[in-house]
Amino acid sequence: LSLFGEPVTQVGQSEAFANQFTIVDTPEALAQLQKTLAGAKCLAVDTETTGVDPLRAELVGISLSVVEGEGYYIPVGHHTAEPQLSLEQVRKALLPAFTDPGLPKYGHNVKYDLLALRRAGLDLAPIVFDTMIAGFLIDPASRNLGLKDMSEDYLNLSMTHIEELIGKGKNQITMDAVPISRAAPYAAADAEITLRLVAPLREKMAERQAEKVFETVEMPLVPVLAMMERNGIALDLDFLKKMSVELTSRLGEIEEQIHRSVGYTFNLNSTQQLSDVLFKTLGLLPPDPRKKTASGHYSTSADVLEELRGQHPVVDLILENRELAKLKSTYVDALPLEVNPDTGRVHTSFNQTGSVTGRLASSEPNLQNIPTRTELGRQVRRAFFAAPGNLLLSVDYSQIELRIVAAMSGDEAMREAFLAGQDIHAATAAAIQNIPLEQVSKDQRRNAKAINFGLIYGMSSFGLSRTTGLTLAEAENFVKAY
């Protein structure tokens, strides 16, 4: 009760979602669904599987919706002793509609469903609307791109969360163990809500003039990424095994050298012990005495060690130890564990909504951050190889962002440099280092590239001086000249 004796009502609470759904578990119900699909104007599709990796998970059920307010659930892989159709029956009945070029398909994170369906011998085309991608284009910074969140945001409808069916933590079960009677309303709602979201999302995208990039870039990319993920890439496991042995040996040597130099053994992975070694035993001066950890020790972070590089052999050895240990744990030992036992290849997942700038993100494993900066790091790339009769081809736009800058700014010097076929990054390096163009090294060019992109994205003079080793005054002059 409020102070005035009136009951308090919750403002803005979402309505609980209740939909009409049909469980398709008999040949008669399947035949009726076929008739419905034959007259449909659009089709929203969702899948239920046994896991989050569509290339390893088994298909449990398919949910469909062709009109708002109605959904269908077709169970094919429940282990609950309830009646359900065979996957072969369902595949034969649904494939014509699923591949009908005149029937537009909708989904939420539909790339997952496409991969799960293809693994089960089905397909889906043409895919014209992904509600998750549409939500991302409307608000690239949004953290609420899940179907349940978007249902509340755009439709004011509260949906059942999957944890209510499968539980959490160690007691969590997989979807195939959920009774069909419980799974059906949840699954059918996923397809039906996806269908309902299309209209308001189209409207919002139109307001933000995002339809063109959605229709010409993002949606055509979905089946391309699905194909890339399904194809995967081959990994030379013997090469990585040998490299792991070599790295283990070198890490042992480094540890012995450090302990000899210091005069006693200590744990290299303990930042507190390392801090004592560097700043007490060896008497090095911390670059910034104010930079201390919660325990009161001077920081031994990567940037601190970089500033101390060259002041004592131990510092350089610690930096090498960290580089090799990261290389070994993150790539050399971790990548072989990602090989799919069914295909013998590594399959990453590409996310179109993973970066606010619109760049693709790669995960499980991340194949977009395989090292290139050091010779040893580049060795990891040698573990990836093409199948016999094929080759790996590296293709990249040539300085595309700077070309756009040149075109948009109308800067004559930049435009002439591009038209003359000059390497902008090498020219920048030559200007900074005050050396002839032909003497620019790979490392100098890479630093210049960071400057070029840094400056067009707003890097300050201070940032430039940190990146290049220029004095602050030199950096300020360079920014003005740039």
Number of alpha- plus pi-helical segments = 19
The main sheet orders its strands as 2-5-4-3-6-7
Helix proportion: 40-55%
Q: What is the CA-based Rg, rounded? A: 29 Å
Give a quick account of the main beta sheet: strands, pairing sense, barrel closure: 6 strands, mixed
CATH superfamily of the largest domain: Ribonuclease H-like superfamily/Ribonuclease H
**Amino-to-carboxy terminus distance:** 66 Å
- Name given to the CATH architecture of the largest domain: 2-Layer Sandwich
User: What name does the CATH topology of the largest domain carry?
Assistant: Nucleotidyltransferase, domain 5
* Total strand segments: 12
Secondary-structure-based class equals alpha/beta
What global shape is seen? globular
Low-confidence spans: 6-12
- Number of spatially distinct domains: 3
CATH class of the largest domain equals Alpha Beta
Write the layout of secondary structure elements.
Elements (H helix, E strand, L loop, with lengths): L14 E2 L3 E4 L3 H12 L4 E7 L9 E7 L4 E6 L11 H12 L6 E3 L2 H10 L7 E4 H8 L8 H9 L1 E2 L4 H4 L13 H28 L3 H21 L2 E2 L1 H26 L8 H11 L20 H7 L4 H20 L16 E3 L9 E3 L11 H7 L2 E2 L14 H10 L2 H8 L4 H10 L8 H15 L4 H8 L3 H10 L1
Parallel strand pairs: 1-8, 2-5, 3-6, 6-7
Antiparallel strand pairs: 3-4, 4-5, 9-12, 10-11
Notes on the protein architecture:
- With 482 residues, the chain is an alpha/beta fold.
- The chain has 3 domains: 15-231, Nucleotidyltransferase, domain 5; 233-395, Taq DNA Polymerase, Chain T, domain 4; 400-481, no CATH class.
- Helix content is 49%, strand content 9%.
- The protein has 19 helices and 12 strands.
- A hairpin with a 4-residue loop joins strand 4 and strand 5 (70-75).
- The longest helix is centred in the middle third of the chain and has 28 residues, at 180-207.
- The chain is globular and about 80 Å long.
